[in-house]
Amino acid sequence: MERRTFLRTAVIGSSAAAFGGTLWRGAALADPAQPAAGPYGALQAANSNGILLPSGFTSRIIARSGQTVPGTSYTWHSAPDGGATFTDGGGWIYVSNAEVSASSGGGASAVRFNSSGTVTSAYRILSGTNTNCAGGRTPWNTWLSCEEVTRGFVYETDPWGVNAAVQRPAMGRFKHEAAAADPDHGYVYLTEDETDGRFYRFRPTTWGNLSSGTLQVLVAGTGTSGPVTWTTVPDPDGSPTQTRYQVSGAKVFNGGEGCFYAAGTCWFTTKGDNRVWAYDANASSLSLVYDDSLVTGGAAPLTGVDNVTRAASGDLYVAEDGGNMEICLITPDDTVAPFLRISGQSGSEITGPAFSPDGRRLYFSSQRGTSGSSSGGITYEVTGPFRS
């Protein structure tokens, strides 16, 4: 993936154009999260896995790239990225993308756990695709795996590995990053990993069937309170004109990354400016949850924003690509603090945070591990007293 330094530099001097002048400055920049003590207390010394956690939390390694997943005969993929969990009887499944080329094993894999958290199997659910970065789960229990390449596709996959993956071109062909399904309003939100990317939503013709529908892009409002509108993208195929250039007035987002929907809101991140956004789907308005350049009273705890997930408590967990390899927690009270840190892996990034269905375990990966290579990825589980 592209480095933060380049992306951050690319937006300096052009932020006014990206924001449309003073658009949103009244509401969106009014109350971004500020550093404070986290709800679980200070990080303790690194454990045997090299992870610093609050008191009461423990970690274990689930899988390593290029090695057999313990308890199975399946070899884990390189460069583990976006992930999600699915209920499986009394147990659950964790799916994970492979952010490598098709020739290097691009696609997605899954690990199945029984009710006690023991790994019972692991297997491939998507093959032959390119640079599958993030994605999102659907309410009908499929995994949307997104290609982060120019005119990339979204693939709908079966976490159980029974049904063949299906390409979903109606959802647009662009440099996809993440997806978040909104069952309350009937949309799937999509981020685009470009320095001048856009924020999209897809409305299926029939909810639960992604074979056809309408792709729209977020367009700037006219005031400073944060309302936005949406305009249909004329040609979701993105050829000859790429989707982000087809609608005049579409708001620019500098490097769209993680995306997660819950409780009427879609949270998403932009890596080029280290921001976390909230789209209020009920009010059709946008606001800024976090911006590292607006942190006061010390250094920003969260840099290199990337994948994001949300706990039942309402806490957002934002993974860092770079930074100091932390997952930071943003509370509903607008405070931000590190939840965990991985030591000795500065050449990597944290990817794929997702809670088990019961909310007691958090899964994530270090994409390149200690080696700094895509073949060195490590997938972890953290267990502890997560608040509900």
From TrEMBL:
InterPro entries: PhoX, TAT_signal, WD40/YVTN_repeat-like_dom_sf. Residues 366-388 are annotated as: Disordered. It comes from the Bacteria. Residues 366-377 have a biased composition (Low complexity). This is PhoX family protein.
